[in-house]
TrEMBL record:
<protein>
    <submittedName>
        <fullName>Right-handed parallel beta-helix repeat-containing protein</fullName>
    </submittedName>
</protein>
<dbReference type="InterPro" id="IPR012334">
    <property type="entry name" value="Pectin_lyas_fold"/>
</dbReference>
<feature type="signal peptide">
    <location>
        <begin position="1"/>
        <end position="20"/>
    </location>
</feature>
<feature type="region of interest" description="Disordered">
    <location>
        <begin position="403"/>
        <end position="431"/>
    </location>
</feature>
<dbReference type="InterPro" id="IPR006626">
    <property type="entry name" value="PbH1"/>
</dbReference>
<keyword id="KW-0732">Signal</keyword>
<dbReference type="InterPro" id="IPR011050">
    <property type="entry name" value="Pectin_lyase_fold/virulence"/>
</dbReference>
<dbReference type="Pfam" id="PF05048">
    <property type="entry name" value="NosD"/>
</dbReference>
<feature type="domain" description="Periplasmic copper-binding protein NosD beta helix">
    <location>
        <begin position="169"/>
        <end position="339"/>
    </location>
</feature>
<dbReference type="InterPro" id="IPR051550">
    <property type="entry name" value="SCF-Subunits/Alg-Epimerases"/>
</dbReference>
<keyword id="KW-0677">Repeat</keyword>
<feature type="compositionally biased region" description="Low complexity">
    <location>
        <begin position="409"/>
        <end position="420"/>
    </location>
</feature>
<dbReference type="InterPro" id="IPR007742">
    <property type="entry name" value="NosD_dom"/>
</dbReference>
């Protein structure tokens, strides 16, 4: 037997003997014959003490187990296809999965109920962490030029996931990417150096996904939601110092058109004209938030400040008009244009409206009085144009500044495996407050002023 196999065999037997009451019939399933445990018992598999690599430990784990990783640099792509496993680092900044630009993704989750916590993922050609129900996406087959066009593959959702306290930096497409997934949470994480976007949610309906309390900076786009519809919440994030802070959009490259029904609330969206960032293909720069062919989205109590081109832009995607978007109780300061609506002649927006915002400039002028919420669904939205600043060239994603240390997962060494709920609790929009300008500033690199 090869030496590696002997080490893994000895490791799992050692790990299983730590479970109180071992010695009963362990039943069948993954790991059967490599050590027995009572039915329903869960273990902690430690890397490298019990298994030499993260991938080895994951292959030994059964539902409910915890894979706990010691500090070190791990040159591997970790694929999790067993349900309800928790993958957790002992130190967020010192447990590093480094793709060395030789693999598409650092962590690929294709099973439900998986939690990925307290580690850093970097230097992958596509994604830091990918959570997906798509076999093609999990294989890294499309996605070479941004996004996933899965062709004739039927839409299959991965149901339930958690990504928490993860640092994703210097990845060729997305830092943290939930694609064809539902019922999940991305929280307390940090994304930088995403050549497309730091955090991305795509192709879900209803999503039942919450993106909360994250920091995204130094990306082409901080957060992007493409064809992500219904019960899609982006709340309490700090999207500062990217080229574009946030977009929610429809795109024919993915399924489940059109995008609609996101809630974007309580975010700080500021200073999104950072030059030392990857340059996105469409050249966006200096924009806080954008709706591109999306409908029925609600922007509520966000602070949108210091974006050189525009604070919030609504436009159309080819043949898909933006309809019924509401901009309510936001604070706009120091933007080139606070709110700008611009549509192709043939694809006019309808029913978009504003109410209760602190703003100074709009295009067209006087939107705050001529497009007051609520509006009839079929009412035509006015449009205009403005002089946008020229976007400067960017830098390779591999050259984006390294992140500062980020907050640790509480009690990483002693907490048990995380139980991921079948459906997360969804925020109550009325409870979300307008953030101060200092939101998450203690952990950020780019100033808002």
């Amino acid at each position: 037997m090869p030496r590696l196999a002997l080490r893994v065999l000895a490791a799992v037997v050692g790990a299983l003997t730590l479970v109180a009451g071992c010695g009963g019939d362990g039943g069948s399933g993954k790991g059967s014959g490599k050590g027995r445990r009572p039915a329903g018992a869960h273990v902690t598999i430690r890397v490298p003490a019990d298994a030499p690599t993260i991938s080895d430990a994951v292959s030994l784990a059964r539902p409910g187990d915890l894979v706990l990783v010691a500090p070190g640099v791990y040159h591997e792509s970790v694929r999790i296809d067993t349900a309800r496993i928790t993958l957790r680092g002992l130190s967020r900044d010192q447990v590093v999965i480094d793709g060395r630009l030789q693999q598409p993704s650092g962590v690929v989750v294709s099973a439900p109920g998986v939690a990925v916590e307290n580690l850093t993922v970097k230097n992958n050609t596509q994604n830091g962490v990918l959570v997906t129900g798509s076999a093609k996406a999990a294989a890294g087959l499309p996605g070479g030029s941004g996004g996933y066009d899965t062709g004739d593959e039927p839409v299959t959702f991965l149901k339930s996931f958690l990504v928490s306290h993860v640092t994703a930096t210097r990845n060729g497409l997305y830092g943290i990417y939930a694609f064809s997934a539902q019922n999940g949470v991305i929280e307390h994480s940090y994304a930088s150096g995403g050549a497309d976007s730091g955090i991305y949610v795509g192709q879900c309906k209803p999503c039942n996904i919450v993106v909360r309390d994250n920091v995204a900076e130094l990306n082409a786009v901080g957060y992007e939601g493409t064809n992500a519809s219904e019960n899609m919440y982006v709340v309490g994030n700090r999207l500062v110092g990217n080229r574009v802070g946030l977009t929610t959009n429809s795109n024919h490259q993915e399924k489940l058109l059109p995008q609609k029904g996101s809630v974007i609330a309580g975010n700080l969206i500021a200073a999104n004209q950072q030059t030392a960032t990857p340059e996105q293909a469409d050249g966006g720069w200096g924009i806080g938030a954008g709706v591109d062919g999306g409908s029925d989205n609600r922007f509520v109590r966000n602070r949108i400040t210091g974006n050189r081109n525009a604070g919030l832009v609504i436009t159309a995607t080819a043949d898909i008009p933006p309809t019924g978007n509401q901009i309510v109780d936001n604070a706009f300061t120091g933007n080139g244009v606070d709110v700008g609506w611009t549509f192709p002649t043939a694809t006019r927006g309808r029913g978009n409206c504003l109410r209760g915002n602190d703003l100074r400039t709009t295009v067209p002028a006087r939107l705050a009085t001529t497009a007051v919420c609520p509006l009839p669904a079929g009412s035509s939205s006015p449009a205009g144009t403005w002089a946008a600043p020229t976007a400067p060239g960017g830098i390779p994603f591999t050259e984006v500044a390294a992140p500062a240390p980020q907050p640790q997962f509480p009690d990483a060494a002693t907490a048990g495996a995380t139980v991921v709920p079948p459906v997360p609790d969804l925020p109550k929009t009325e409870d979300i407050r307008l953030p101060p300008a200092s939101l998450l500033a203690a952990h950020a690199r780019v100033r808002t002023s």
